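Quick one, probably user error.
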């Protein structure tokens, strides 16, 4: 028999760990299965309405609820009544994001027909082409990729499979060289760095960059030691970078806005997609009045696999702008 949701009491320690993303989603799922069932019922009820942009609206709703809950708990000084009342909204938001991700992966990989995996031919070619070893990515040779990609029997299987490991794109050698040229010798910071692949490639190419991440995706990603644990706001304050990078930022995220509010930043480079429901805080992009926004088509074509949705955005601080907090 499931517990009465109203009767669940959370310790202050448990609340702090959840708020700091120190408790991964799978652990939360096992400890609070009742909330998973509640989220599934809510998603099912909203899905039956067949509204446009359903996934985007669902994520926005849960994310908004979680932000309000987090603010209430902090302002209360971790008052027990407030924790019990609002922490479930944060847990449910974590569940919703996780479950929706799993649903999207299942649909895109057509997993309903059985486990999806590479055949030996595709697996061998892609391993040699994209990875240094196992799932450790390497800069991709564009000429070689263009030849080998034509030989892949099931190209649509690649991204749904690697998405499960927090991999959303591959970087060509040419892209890394172009990014290095843009950055030059300026102080560079990557936020939301994940496994740090982009920073690693830049450093190997002679461009100094510091990788940071808040480790909130530990259920997908194994974070290497060189990726410093820090949220975007703290990292920007600590390093005062002139150039900031972010690859595949979460849609409607709460952290990109801090880039535009950091006085030291002269250039912000975003690697993602053209779809606001998949990557990026486009609300923050549109409000960044001190920066000019450019969708660089040339750089976008240097991401692999090729897709019309691939996008590299360059946000350049306007010379005559004066930053105000």
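Nope, works fine. Designed sequence:
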């Amino acid at each position: 028999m499931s517990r009465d949701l109203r009767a669940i009491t959370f310790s202050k320690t448990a609340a702090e760990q959840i708020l700091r993303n120190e408790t991964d989603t799978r652990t939360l799922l096992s400890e609070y299965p009742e909330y998973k069932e509640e989220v599934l019922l809510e998603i099912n009820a909203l899905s039956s309405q067949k509204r446009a942009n359903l996934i985007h609206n669902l994520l926005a709703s849960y994310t908004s609820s979680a932000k309000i809950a987090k603010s209430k708990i902090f302002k209360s000084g971790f008052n027990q009544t407030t924790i019990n009342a609002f922490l479930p909204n944060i847990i449910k938001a974590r569940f919703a994001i996780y479950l929706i991700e799993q649903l999207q992966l299942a649909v895109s990989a057509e997993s309903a027909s059985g486990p999806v995996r590479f055949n030996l031919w595709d697996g061998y070619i892609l391993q040699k082409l994209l990875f240094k070893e196992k799932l450790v990515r390497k800069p991709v040779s564009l000429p070689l990729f263009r030849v080998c990609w034509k030989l892949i029997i099931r190209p649509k299987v690649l991204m749904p499979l690697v998405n499960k490991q927090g991999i959303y794109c591959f970087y060509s050698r040419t892209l890394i060289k172009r990014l290095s040229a843009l950055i030059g010798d300026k102080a560079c910071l990557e936020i939301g760095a994940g496994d740090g692949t982009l920073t690693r490639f830049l450093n190997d190419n002679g461009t100094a960059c510091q990788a940071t991440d808040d480790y909130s995706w530990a259920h997908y990603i194994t974070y290497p030691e060189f990726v410093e644990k820090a949220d975007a706001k703290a990292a920007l304050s600590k390093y005062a970078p002139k150039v900031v990078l972010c690859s595949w930022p979460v849609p409607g995220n709460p952290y990109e806005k801090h880039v535009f509010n950091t006085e030291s930043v002269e250039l912000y480079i975003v690697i993602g997609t053209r779809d606001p429901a998949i990557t990026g805080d486009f609300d923050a992009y549109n409000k960044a009045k001190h920066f000019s926004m450019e969708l660089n088509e040339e750089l976008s074509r240097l991401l692999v696999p090729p897709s019309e949705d691939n996008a590299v955005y360059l946000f350049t601080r306007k010379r005559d702008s004066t930053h105000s907090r």
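The mean pLDDT is 86.
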